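Input protein
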Amino acid sequence: MALSTTKRFSHKAAPYAAFYNEAGEPRLNVEGTVEIAGVSDIDINAPTIDSSCYIGKSAGTNGGDFVVAWTSATELTLSSFPGAITAIYAADIEAIRQINVAGTVVATYHRDDTTMLMTGAVLAVTGAAFASDDKFIVFTNIPRPASSGAGGAGGGSIVYTNMSGDFVATITNATTNITVTGLPFTLEAGHVVLGSLKKKAVTTNVVTTLLPSTVSVAGGVITLGGVTNFATGDEVYVTLIGPDKAYDLALDSSQGVVQNPEYGHYTGVETLISETNLSTILATADGGGDTDTIVDADGAFSGASTAVGYIGYQTTDSQSATVNSVASATTVETTTLTGGATWASKAYSLPKVMRYEIPMEGYNFLSMHWRLTTVANQTVYVKLYGTLDSTATAEADTNWVDLTSTLLTPGVSTGVSCTGAASVEGIKVLDSPFTMLKYMVKLVVEKSTAGAPSGSLFTMFIKKSS
C-alpha cells in the first residue's frame, strides 16, 4: 500500500503484523511516516551489529576480530581468530553481509533461512553468489571477553576455564606440566590453587580430580607435584581464579597509572658469582708425557675448564710452564718445563677457568661490585669480555671480545688480580651510552708458588640500568 500521509497501525491480537499484496504474499511498501503500536518486536530481517560478539571482516577493512577471505562462489575461509578461539563452528555464525566493489550490499544471509556449514576453517553458504572482489562481514554469537565496567568498576566473573575458551591448556607427555596460553593476565600459582583441575585419561576415559601436593608456575607452565604424569591424548579441564573480567584499570578513576615508571629502568642487585673454595686442576699425569706435553687419560681437559695462557705447575719437581693449548680431552700442550723435567707420571696443578654470562636484556649500563680474597700460593685473575654475537657462550672465549684493558682495568690486560694471602675489593660502573648484547666475566685460578693451591674466595654483585 502507498501512503502519502502519516498513518498509525495498531495490532493487539498477536505479537506480529503482516500486510499482503494482491497475490497473497506478505509485502509492505510504505511511503511517508509509519507509527506501529501494540507490537513488542519487529523483525525486519536485518541483524543488529552487536559489538559484544566477535565480528569477522575481509582484509582491507577496519575493526575485524578475525579475517574473512573469498574461496569460491559459495565458500569463505575464516582465519586469524582472536584470543583463545581456535575454531569457529556453524552454530557460531549469525549472519553474513556481502558488499560489492561499488559499495552496495548485494545480499545478507541470515541463519534463519540459509544453510551454513563449517568444514575446518571453510564456511559454505547454500545459495550464495560470492564474487572474488566482494567484501564480507561475518557476524557471530561468540561473546567477547568482558573487559570494562562503568568507571572501571568490577562485578564481572573471576572464573577462567579452558572449556569456555578463556585460554588454551596443553599437557606435556610424561610430565605433570600444563602449558597455559591466551590468558589476559600473568599466571601465578595462586590462580591455580584457588581453582580446580580435572583429567580425562586417554586410555579409560575416566575423569579424575587432580589434587596436587605442590603447584608451581613459570612462564605460563603449571607444574604439579604429587600427581601421575600425563600421557599423550589425556584431556585436562582447568579452572583458574583470576582478575575480575569486568574490571578495567584504565577506566578506574581511583587508580593512577604511571606509563614509564622509574623502576622499569633498572634491575635489582644480582649475585653473579659466589665462589668459596677456588682451586686449580689437580691430578697426576700418565707416563706418556714429556717436557711440554701432559697426557692424562682421566684429565677431561677442555677450553671450558683449562685456562690457556696461564702457568701450570709440575709439583713433583717444583717446575712450571705456560699452558699453550688443550689438544684433546686427554692432552695439554705447554712450554718446556723450567727445569727440564717431564710431565710424565708427575703430579700437576693446571690453571682453572670459569666464565659467567651477563645478558644485558636491552639495558645500557652495568655496575659490578667484586670482593676477592686469595690464600697463600695462589693467584686469581678477573677479566671482562663483551659480544654482540648471540652464538657466543660461556664455554669458551670464541666470539667474545676482550674488554679488560679498555673497560674493566684501563691499560691493564691481566684485569683485577690478587696473589697470596691478600684481599681486593672494587666497583666498576660501565656507563658509556651503548648497548652490549651480553658481557662475560672470566675468572682464572692459578698456582703461584709451591704449596696448597686452593681456598680463595670470590663474590661479584651486578646491577643493570638504562
Q: What stands out?
A: The chain has four domains: 53-143, 159-241, 282-350, 353-465. Residues 1-17, 29-33, 38-48, 147-151 have pLDDT under 50 and may be disordered. The first strand starts at residue 7 and ends at 10.
